[in-house]
Amino acid sequence: MREAVIVAAVRTPVGKRGGGLAEVHAADLSAAVLTALVDRTGLGPAAVDDVIWGCVSQVGDQSGNIGRYAVLAAGWPESVPGTTVNRACGSSQQALEFAVQSVLSGQHELVVAGGVEVMSRVPLGSARASGIPYGPQVLARYQDFSFNQGVSAELIARKWGFTRTRLDEFAALSHERAAAAQDAGAFAAETVPVAGVVADEGIRRGSGVESLAGLRPSFQEDGVIHAGNASQISDGAAALLVTTPEKARESGWKPLVRYRAGAVAGSDPVLMLTGPIPATEKVLRKAGVALSEVGVFEVNEAFAPVPLAWLAETGADPGRLNPLGGAIALGHPLGASGAVLMTRMIHHMRAHGIRYGLQTMCEGGGTANATLVELAD
């Protein structure tokens, strides 16, 4: 059976809302990481079979198949196709899955997967401005629930008994770990400067439970979710080059990781953000790998209760969860986040000789992706 490997993984710094990347068009931001793939590998773009790009708010700057315009903005040959996928926050992780599947099936040999979101220019919720996506039958099925992720995060916190203090402790740890990683140069090899931005902008050094205590709840008057223990609105892009081991050898590329298994799971769309729990179980079962064998877990920090509930249900080692911080500190550029997390995880695995890494993302509507990769020899 064919194998798929990732031979390059690169991302932009993640910009904060209104920050250094706010004036960069999504196609141009995407082009920066596509260009970086070429620069780092010597890739001839004409050989790329497809570019599969994640993006959530496909309106305005990000409408009309941003994946195709990313290719053109990068100056790649017009013969290189591009497409855009949307699985909510897991869009670019799903783009990677589609890329891997096309390589494993033998349809393609060389595919770029990634994604983009410039939330400063295309605000969260822009795609719903002219209507709602779920319709009356869905609303009737779920008793007119608002399908608001913040409310879902509140429900998760209540179900698992997470106090505001516990959530704020986790948020502060995210900033602490991200700051330590940035200071140690952990992100340097994976990032490409854009528009003068050379480092992730969202880290708030010195964040603690005391400093977070003054923030007002965002979704319920007596709630526990606020801006400080939720993911940041961000701008960013990331790209990964997927191929076969044979093609990698022929091209002189050393694989970073090999793809072991992927899974997608549906879950309660009211709780909405608990999908990573069954998705993790599913991907480990498919791969035949035990939870204890996995050396690093990237569980997207959409809201602090999400990774904490995942941790409580899986029993994973908390020291292996988001060791470089997560979206609370580093930001969550929606359609790019899956590829950003994978890029970050791969480079961490390479730096520390970690055999297995598992990434999982909660997604709007109650789905989740999980991907398991293994360090290449």
From TrEMBL:
Family matches, as Gene3D superfamilies: 3.40.47.10
Cited PROSITE patterns: THIOLASE_2
A Pfam family hit: Thiolase_C
Annotated ranges, domain Thiolase N-terminal: 5-244
CDD domains the record matches: thiolase
Similarity remark: Belongs to the thiolase-like superfamily. Thiolase family.
Descriptive protein name: Thiolase family protein
Organism: Streptomyces vulcanius
Lineage, broadest ranks: Bacteria, Bacillati, Actinomycetota, Actinomycetes, Kitasatosporales
